[in-house]
Amino acid sequence: MITSLENRKISFSYVIVILFLLIISSGICLVLFQASNSTTLSKTSCRDAPEHKSEHELLNSSTTLQRSSVGMNSVSDVSDRLMELATNTRGFAYLQLLDSFLLQADVGQLETIIDKSNQIQSPHALHLTQDEVFRRFALVSPIQAIANLDKIPQIRRDHSLRIILAEWSHYDLDECVKHVNTMEESDRVLAFITIMNTLSDTSPNRLREIKENLNISSGLNDLVAMNKEYESQDHPATDWNRMLNDSTDDSSQFLEMLPVVMKWIEHEGLDALTQVRNSLGDDTLRLQLVHRALELHSRFSPHEAFSYAIQTYQADMYASVHRLAMNWVIRDPDAVFVALAEIESIELRKSLEEAALDAWAGLNPHEFLDQLDNLPHWLQEVAQEIAIRTMLLVDPKEAANRLFVDSNEGTLGQAQTIVSSWSSINALEAFQWVATNPHVRKYQLSLVQNALSNLSVEESEQAMQTATAQPLNSLGLGMEAYVVTWLAKQDLQAAKSMLPRTREGITRLMAYLAVGERLAKNEDYQEAISLVHDLPEDYHANYFDGLFRRFASARPALVYSEIEQLPSTEARSSAAKWLVLYNRFLGEESLSELQLEKLRSHITKEDLEDLNEQDRLYDIFEHLLQD
Questions:
Q1: For residues 492, 494, 496 and 501, what is the CA-based torsion angle, rounded to 10 degrees?
Q2: pLDDT at position 179, please?
């Protein structure tokens, strides 16, 4: 504790500097930490990278996009990036990035992507985006997916409805029919056609039952005739050759070609896909068709689709085999890792194992952690890292209980991720954890501002109670000073009402300075200055020093004009010192030599020594910049 006024002011100057540097450094650490998570994401933009990336690079970009999206405070950050990629990235590359993000997207994110997608200029990229979003939306919430159809152009509505209904009918036909029955007859007809062609092995009796449930007036034969886009092909190889040899550009026929390819695979197995690959000269279209056909086939025969992809593997299949492994692991983890163990390429096997582990952990990190001991021993270390990394983002409370309890001691980076994720879910709980957990006490200064960032004004009372119940930190500072500092920016009157509840000493001084600086920013200068009377006299000089450090740089002319009216020698000296010190940076607002001499007459011997030391430091700094 500082024991005299003279020592108090000198020591406080250094304390303020230390606090300022610590706060700034903690902010920098946080920015760097967050930036490190988004560096790879920014590299996916074609403005910053070569026009054509390898499939390996594209998958790395998509994995980073997926991980980054989970913990982002703003859904639009990710959707904006996707829209940029849709504009600048090749079709197949964009499809991989989009699929990777959609694998873990929630309803709000999907709705945002649909909204944003209408801004895409390329029709091909627009259709790919909306098809993939509605396909994923149907798995997350089919009713919500249908409700969002009014956000896309009317001409695309029926096509997108088919996608939703095809997905929904696969995994819950009864609920799909039940909901469709509430829709208009044109949609019911469309639904029946979709169900009839999607579930091709459904018995005629079951189809008639569905038709009766949907109360469709049209005859069954009429319905079959109406189905143009998805009508069954008896000779898919013939239809394929016809499409290849017609006058229409192949690259524009993806939606027409895919049903033909799937019917061909149904007739002849995946050997048909080899014929598709060999017959197409358009690389992008070939990749799109092979990727989508394997993805669709994997829903019924995941092992067969994956085995085919590995057996026919080429460099351009890198992203496809990763997607197949990631989808398969969600359904049958044991089978996936058995299949992966048989891959000869060590590099490809390790990459696929990590991708599969990432997908499994992202789906259910708790189950994933519980199953670690059942994984092959060579996967357990990397699996544990992935599980913790995922849990930090999707379940920060559980991560906190695992990493910062008893003898466990997580890292600063892990604590920052926990607080960032947790505060977006429950800001008060996140702050209380930072304030009360002894295992993160050494990180408090770096965590507390992030913990407060999402707190509501209504929660400030509970935050204040929590803060005042905690011991002072190693600097002798109570956490209520941070609460008041944060609250001063949100609700100045509420912050002022909490000032008397702060503990005496540097805690109260910091809180008063936060309120005083906010008052000064609002041009309530007299009230800012009068706050000093609520502080012990020993702290008046320190209060003015902190206040005018900001005030003198923001409004130098006003401070100069009012300096004679300031209430004490300490106030006038502090204001004069900071005006003189900042004068070199004021540009057109700089003071004349005569004005500077007048100011120096107000500066006390103690402040003059401080001014000379600060001047010397600035001289050194400017010299370093010149070098």
A1: -150
A2: 92
In this predicted structure, the answer to whether residue 344 has a pLDDT above a threshold of 70 is yes
How many Cβ atoms from other residues are within 10 Å of residue 559's Cβ? 22
Instruction: Show Cβ contacts of residue 129 under 8 Å, excluding neighbours closer than 6 positions.
Output: 82, 86, 94, 98, 113, 117, 120
Give the model's pLDDT for residue 144: 92
Residues 6+ apart with CB under 8 A from 404: 410, 415, 418, 437, 439, 440
Q: Which of 476, 487, 486 is CA-nearest to residue 509?
A: 476
> Could you tell me how far CA 322 lies from the centroid of its own chain?
22
Can you give the pTM of this predicted structure? 0.51
Q: 587's torsion region: left (phi>0), alpha (psi -120 to 50) or beta? A: left
Q: How far apart are the first and last CA of the chain?
A: 41
How far is 422 from 558, CA to CA, in rounded Å? 44
Tell me the three-class secondary structure of 481-525, residue by residue. HHHHHHHHHHCHHHHHHHHHHCCCCHHHHHHHHHHHHHHHHCCCH
Average pLDDT in the chain: 77
Phi/psi for 609 (5° steps) reads -65, -40
Long-range contacts, 582-589 (Cβ 8 Å, 24+): 582/552, 582/553, 582/556, 583/556, 584/618, 585/553, 586/553, 586/556, 589/556, 589/557
- Which one, of 32, 96, 17, lies nearest residue 59 by Cα? 96
Are 432 and 466 in contact, with CB atoms under 8 Å apart? yes
For residue 172, the Cα-to-chain-centroid distance in whole angstroms is: 31
Q: Check residue 543 and give left, alpha or beta (phi > 0: left; psi -120 to 50: alpha).
A: alpha
> What pLDDT, on the 0 to 100 scale, is given for residue 83?
66
SS3 254: helix
Minimal CA–CA distance to 379: which of 429, 329, 417?
A: 329
pLDDT-derived band at 500 (thresholds 50, 70, 90) equals very high
Give the C-alpha separation, 26 to 441, whole Å.
14
As a whole number of angstroms, the distance between CA 592 and CA 579 comes to 12
Q: How many angstroms separate the Cα of 283 from the Cα of each of 18, 118, 124? A: 60, 26, 15
Angle between helices 460-468 and 480-490 (to 10 degrees): 160
* Burial group, residue 134, by CB count within 10 angstroms (0-12, 13-18, 19+): buried
